[in-house]
Q: What sequence folds into this?
C-alpha cells in the first residue's frame, strides 16, 4: 500500500496528523468491507455459503459474479485492514515514545537549570528576623525569613559583621539601596530607601547574621 511506504519512510517524523490519516484510511476500508457484505446480504448468502445447488450445479437464484467479486474484495480489504491496524499501532508507539523522550528531556533540562540556578546563588550572610508594618523595609517588599546576599555595597564576599549593614544604612539615608535576598530558593531583588518614619531607626526591620 502506498500509505505504508510513505509512513515507513519517515518513521522518525511521525506526527499525530499522520496517525489521523491512517485512521481515516482504516475507516474507509471498513466502509468498503461493509458495502461488500451488504452485497452478499442482498444476495442472501454469507462469506462461505456454497454457490452450487444440491446437484452440484451453479445456483441460478443468485448473481454469482457479484458474490465472487464481493468475497474476493472482502478478502483483499481484510488483509489491507490488518496491515493498516498494525501500522497505526506502530505509529502510535513511535509517537508516544518520542513524546515520552521529549518530556523526560524537558524535565531533565528543567532540573539541571534549577540546579545551576541554585548553585549560582551565593550563600546568605544575614537573615531578616522581623519586619514592621508601614516601615521602609515593609514598603520595599522585605519579608521575614528573607536571606540577604546583597545590601547596598555589602555582599557575601565582604560581609564581616552587622555593623557593616548599619554603616551603609547611616550613610544612605534618603538614597535607594539595591537589596538582593534568597526567598524560597529564588533570588529576589528590591530597592530599599533608608528614611525616617513613625517607628525606630531608618529601616523598620531586624537583621541577624547567618552563621556559616
A:
Amino acid at each position: 500500500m502506498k500509505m505504508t511506504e510513505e509512513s515507513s519512510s519517515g518513521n522518525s517524523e511521525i506526527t499525530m496528523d499522520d496517525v489521523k490519516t491512517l485512521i481515516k484510511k482504516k475507516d474507509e476500508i471498513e466502509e468498503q468491507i461493509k458495502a461488500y457484505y451488504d452485497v452478499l446480504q442482498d444476495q442472501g448468502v454469507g462469506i462461505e455459503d456454497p454457490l452450487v445447488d444440491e446437484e452440484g450445479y451453479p445456483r441460478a437464484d443468485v448473481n454469482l459474479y457479484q458474490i465472487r467479486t464481493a468475497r474476493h474484495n472482502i478478502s483483499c480489504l481484510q488483509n489491507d485492514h490488518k496491515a493498516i491496524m498494525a501500522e497505526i499501532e506502530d505509529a502510535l508507539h513511535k509517537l508516544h515514545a518520542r513524546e515520552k523522550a521529549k518530556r523526560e528531556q524537558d524535565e531533565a533540562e528543567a532540573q539541571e537549570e534549577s540546579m545551576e540556578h541554585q548553585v549560582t546563588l551565593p550563600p546568605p550572610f544575614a537573615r531578616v528576623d522581623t519586619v514592621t508594618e508601614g516601615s521602609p523595609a515593609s514598603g520595599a517588599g522585605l519579608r521575614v525569613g528573607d536571606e540577604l546576599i546583597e545590601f547596598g555595597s555589602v555582599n557575601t564576599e565582604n560581609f564581616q559583621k552587622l555593623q557593616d549593614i548599619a554603616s551603609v544604612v547611616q550613610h544612605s539615608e534618603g538614597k535607594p539601596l539595591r537589596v538582593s535576598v534568597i526567598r524560597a530558593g529564588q533570588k529576589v531583588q528590591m530597592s530599599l530607601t533608608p528614611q525616617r518614619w513613625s517607628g525606630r531607626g531608618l529601616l523598620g526591620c531586624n537583621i541577624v547574621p547567618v552563621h556559616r
Summary: The longest strand covers residues 177-183.
